């Protein structure tokens, strides 16, 4: 039975698999690393026959491409879990701890976009946006400013949609919160 | 020698590859399932919250009681001791570094699904939603939902949902240029049948903290004039979904609080009487991926905050005027001379 | 419209089936099926790396530049319309990526010119092949030797089938006609040939 599937993989490489069988085979391929390895091996065999010598891809190349597409950065060990360890659990999703390094801090992360920006729709509102706001040097927020902003955020957080509410509240909790920048428009142009 | 460099793995991936799910569940229904799970399940998890240059570890505990009412606690694990607790009636934000607890009445009736603008049919005008199979997270099969903005007024999101429960295991916010600016990633998530009530209690020692009530139930409020404020132009796709009064400490009059939403993002606009000392210069600020912009209009302070790009909050704040001025020639509020 | 594949080898034209199959994978990739794109990477990774290695002064960068090319291709998938074969499109992206990499390092490329015509490209390829040095890839050499040995040991019908497919680029139908057997038999022979060679290769790559 497995031979039959591997034969399908061989046919897929040659473009000889009936189109309606492709979908199912792709799903199989996604779950089966050995099957994927076989596909890659068959491709390598063909390459070697056609153009022997010269460079070939290292075995982890395809994984690196995948990784680059995902924009995943290097992983570093997590800090200690401080979870209460004694609670009984019903379902636990857990794996060896990893922590993403800070986003957009590395050039690699910055280069990978979450999505391609649309050609910017010219905002119809725009008066103020076309003028670059005139900011003086960013000042540190006063405690009163931080607190005011925090109150706005808390009030606002109740009206965020579920997709974003978590982010708004965690932003409030993040270690260096309140205001991350305060800028003053000096004679800015509406 | 070259062989050694390649290591143990042969021609295979380190990650599972992706293939689209059938058309059975589209992105929108995944999002609805997600909202429902977030509101109705009991869970306790650890996650990291990352923005440029900074990653924080946090814990969230979400509890639903036998009457279906939810409470929640969010705590920073990095030593700042900050916590947010949503009790049945209120939201308490404990800020030990300021020795302050901000208190706000809960706007909803305990069921988090209500009072939220549900994505309407116009959502497609402003976002492109898509769903696809993702790499495994925490050993779970995931569906990746992309919420991609069609213009630069809003952010984009990518959510990795557990296929079984629709719980978000990872989420990334992208700015208007598509750059990732914020990430939440669970390192551990427990779904439980029950969560003890004590897990929702804050652990921070709030003795000596100043309790600042940032809001008050309306019943206790004096009459306020039915004066209205409206933005004369709203960024495309945003519509007014709620309007209420927000009491701010130290102000005799409550602030008007307008909430706009495009179905995914929400913007709050607060209008409050300006300080007697005269108009303040406009300010832009940010907290995480949320932006805020504050400006002066006719002796009032208008502040817009929301999880949208800075441009968007600035534009909406700049276009707010008192209602009785509508119909007259609307001038853009001038920026104040220093 | 079938276009001539400008690959390493003049005989390396994609058969109609391969083109269609690639197009199907591309369509799926455009619909966010990452598995489909991953297969395209697996299929063309060696070709792209070979190509890029020849264009760069420093072949050690070939994998990085090739990776960049694939990522670019992934992001640009929306603009691929099927007017050309997928590999032709990928080839151009790889060439451009290599050119940009060279430009950013401000070096003159080794006998490279933008927008080579097809014949120039294949000439260039064959010229460069002659200057390709054995130091380039010792593992690749081992693989070549292993594959050749394994092919030599195959039963004649399996060997013929796979050579007609991979080297001559014939479709299953064409091979069936050439070998006077059913298409299903061709498919099975090619598969078994691959399996036998794969078995020989596996210890090399594990």
Protein architecture, described:
The complex is a heterotrimer of chains A (190), B (338) and C (206). Chain A has 8 helices and 4 strands. Chain A has 190 residues and is mainly alpha-helical. The longest helix of chain A has 18 residues, at 33-50. Chain A is elongated and about 75 Å long. Chain B has 2 domains: 27-200, outer membrane lipoprotein receptor (LolB), chain A (Clam); 216-325, MucB/RseB, C-terminal domain (Phosphorylase Kinase, domain 1, 2-Layer Sandwich), CATH 3.30.200. Chain B has 4 helices and 20 strands. A 12-stranded mixed β-sheet of chain B has the order 7-8-9-10-11-1-2-3-4-5-6-12. Chain B has a 6-stranded antiparallel β-sheet with strand order 14-15-16-19-18-17, with helices on one face. Chain B is globular, with a radius of gyration of 22 Å. Chain C is mainly α. In chain C, helix 1 crosses helix 2, helix 3 packs across helix 4 and helix 8 (172-179) crosses helix 9 (183-205). Helices cover 68% and strands 0% of the residues of chain C. Strand 2 of chain A pairs antiparallel with strand 11 (180-192) of chain B.
Give the tags.
heterotrimer; B: about 350 residues; mainly beta; outer membrane lipoprotein receptor (LolB), chain A; Phosphorylase Kinase, domain 1; 2 domains; 12-stranded mixed β-sheet; 6-stranded antiparallel β-sheet; 4 helices; disordered N terminus; disordered C terminus; C: about 210 residues; mainly alpha; Rna Polymerase Sigma Factor, Chain: A; Arc Repressor Mutant, subunit A; 9 helices; globular
How is this fold's topology laid out?
The complex is a heterotrimer of chains A (190), B (338) and C (206).
Chain A: H1 2-13, H2 19-31, H3 33-50, H4 61-70, E1 75-76, E2 91-94, E3 99-100, H5 107-111, H6 127-130, H7 143-157, H8 162-173, E4 183-184
Antiparallel strand pairs in A: 1-3
Helix pairs in contact in A: 1-3, 2-3, 7-8
Chain B: H1 2-6, H2 27-40, E1 42-51, E2 54-64, E3 70-76, E4 83-86, E5 90-95, E6 100-105, H3 123-126, E7 127-137, E8 140-149, E9 156-162, E10 168-174, E11 180-192, E12 210-213, E13 229-231, E14 239-246, E15 255-261, E16 266-273, E17 283-287, E18 290-297, E19 300-306, H4 310-318, E20 320-322
Parallel strand pairs in B: 6-12
Antiparallel strand pairs in B: 1-2, 1-11, 2-3, 3-4, 4-5, 5-6, 7-8, 8-9, 9-10, 10-11, 13-20, 14-15, 15-16, 16-19, 17-18, 18-19
Chain C: H1 16-30, H2 34-55, H3 62-75, H4 86-104, H5 118-131, H6 138-152, H7 156-166, H8 172-179, H9 183-205
